[in-house]
Specification:
- Belongs to the major facilitator superfamily. Sugar transporter (TC 2.A.1.1) family.
- The chain crosses the membrane at residues 56-75, 87-105, 111-133, 145-162, 174-193, 254-276, 291-312, 319-343, 349-374, 386-407, 419-437.
- It is found in: Membrane.
- It is a multi-pass membrane protein.
- This protein is mainly α.
- It folds into 2 domains: 1-235, Up-down Bundle (Growth Hormone, Chain: A); 241-463, MFS general substrate transporter like domains (Growth Hormone, Chain: A), CATH 1.20.1250.20.
- It has helices at 10-49, 53-80, 83-103, 107-135, 141-167, 172-177, 180-190, 197-202, 206-217, 220-234, 240-246, 248-266, 269-282, 287-315, 317-341, 346-364, 367-377, 384-412, 415-436, 445-453.
- The longest helix has 40 residues, at 10-49.
- It starts with 9 loop residues before the first helix and ends in a 10-residue tail after the last helix.
- Bound molecules: beta-D-glucopyranose.
- Residues 35, 149, 152-153, 156, 264, 269-270, 273, 301, 368, 395, 399 line the site of beta-D-glucopyranose.
Length: 463
């Protein structure tokens, strides 16, 4: 390789890598803004357009369907266009979609705008973690995946806060339109990102890959090592679909990834993310308090994510998931019971809010970040893109179903029963975790792959 010039200081290389990762993790921010922004706008939308719960359910949930489509397309786009251009496309769609939502002159235009936003997020939610994994130095790779989840929660919080600010004037157009500004900043930032060296090598563009690595790593030795490693990895071509058809063990890991994402969504977290003000309304709160409590939900979601980041490599994945599911089941079970008994005074209101926050803590410290981590750890190298693609797609389809079914469930089986149903799912997931989920703490990806392919039971492919 042509590494003859004097290397810049290694620390400079590392700083550039961290900066690059932060910028890419901003894609997580867009993910979060998208999820959070709709909750505060709903009651104003219903009033302005005079629409019922059915149309509202579509406005909320079409975004997730778009994201599922975007995630499907992203695998192909990011391998054809490259990671960077796919992220740029995501950012452009994000800005366009937000503006369209802000201007929407009929409910149908709004549904179209939400679909575009969804496509944007589907592209970003597949490409950004892939880019992060390819570009982050080994020593900070785990932290970067956590950073991505943290950015999702920060995006949700920012959207909740901006919704709260605009709720005084009831201006849903600004609520939905204003997220075009962070979207535009992201677009500007992505313009400065280097292309992924791994993708450049895939396309036989080694000199450009070396140039990027020079900025990221600094020293010539490190560049040569990285180029060697990438070349080694590329010897294992991604033949996910082929492997899926041929190999029963790979089908098991794909199945587990899909199941994990269904579990994450059926915890009920997004019921709260999309409908929190409505839930607070049903507890008897006026509009202003609904919005502020929703912002507190967002804040608790951010803060509790730090518990996961701090514990994941100490306690391990499974114990944290057990704690999370138990806490979530208790939180939702009690909220359901309070709604069943009727919330009559201020003390009961506050108690119910606190239990909802307990549920949020349970999710953010466990299933929120850990499911994404596990899904990227369990797939064998040859089928990793395909496996992660399947689980990400499932995340959005399940997310869509949860968003679409919540209002019909409330109106059909009743409020308390809906919360009990989600509480029951969380209890069932404790059993799934015992039977099926491996403990991947401190195990290399190669070890996991070896045990999976040797046909060991899924729960034993880790430690
Ligand atoms: C989930 C999203 C959820 C978010 C909440 C993510 O891990 O995939 O569906 O809205 O966490 O923080």
């Amino acid at each position: 390789m042509s590494a003859t010039t004097a290397p810049p200081a290694a620390t400079h290389g590392k700083a550039t890598a961290v900066f690059t990762c932060i910028l890419a993790a901003l894609a997580g921010l867009m993910f979060g803004l998208d999820i959070g922004v709709i909750s505060g706008a709903q009651q104003f939308l219903q009033k302005d357009f005079g629409i019922g719960d059915d149309t509202l359910g579509w406005i909320v949930s079409i975004m997730m369907l778009g994201a599922a489509l975007g995630a499907l397309l992203a695998g192909w786009l990011s391998s054809q266009l490259g990671r960077k251009r796919t992220l740029i496309l995501g950012a452009v769609l994000f800005v366009g979609g937000s503006v369209l939502c802000g201007l929407a002159w009929t409910p149908h235009v709004l549904i179209a705008g939400r679909l575009v936003l969804g496509l944007a997020i589907g592209l970003a939610s597949f490409t950004a973690p892939l880019y992060l994994a390819e570009i982050a130095p080994e020593s900070i790779r785990g932290a970067m995946i956590s950073l991505y989840q943290l950015m999702i929660t920060i995006g949700i919080l920012v959207a909740f806060l901006s919704d709260t600010a605009f709720s005084y004037s009831g201006n849903w157009r600004w609520m939905l339109g204003v997220i075009a500004i962070p979207g535009a900043l992201f677009l500007f930032g992505v313009g400065f990102l280097p292309e992924s060296p791994r993708w450049l090598m895939m396309k036989d563009r080694q000199p450009e890959a070396e140039q990027v690595l020079r900025k990221l790593l600094g020293s010539n030795d490190a560049i040569a090592r990285e180029i060697g490693e990438i070349r080694e990895q590329l010897k294992t071509p991604q033949r996910g679909w082929h492997l899926f058809q041929q190999n029963r063990n790979f089908r098991r890991s794909v199945g587990l990834g899909v199941l994990l994402q269904v579990m994450q969504q059926l915890t009920g977290m997004n019921v709260v993310m999309y409908y929190a003000p409505r839930i607070f309304q049903d507890m008897g709160y006026a509009t202003e308090s609904q919005m502020w409590f929703t912002a507190i939900v967002g804040l608790v979601n951010v803060l509790a994510t730090f518990i996961a980041i701090g514990l994941v490599d100490k306690l391990g994945r499974k114990p944290i998931l057990y704690i999370g599911f138990v806490v979530m089941a208790i939180g939702l079970g009690v909220v359901g019971t309070m709604m069943h008994l009727g919330i009559h005074d201020h003390g009961q209101q506050i108690f119910t809010v606190v239990m909802l926050l307990v549920f949020i803590v349970g999710f953010a410290m466990s299933a929120g970040p850990l499911i994404w981590t596990l899904c990227s750890e369990i797939q064998p190298l040859k089928g990793r893109d395909f496996g992660i693609g399947c689980s990400t797609f499932t995340n959005w389809v399940a997310n869509w179903l949860v968003g679409l079914s919540f209002l019909p469930l409330l109106n059909g089986i009743g409020q308390a029963e809906t919360f009990w149903l989600y509480a029951a799912f969380n209890v069932v997931f404790i059993a799934f975790t015992i039977w099926l989920v491996p403990e991947t703490k401190g195990v290399t990806l190669e070890q996991i792959e070896r045990k999976l392919m040797a046909g060991q039971p899924l729960r034993q492919i880790g430690r």
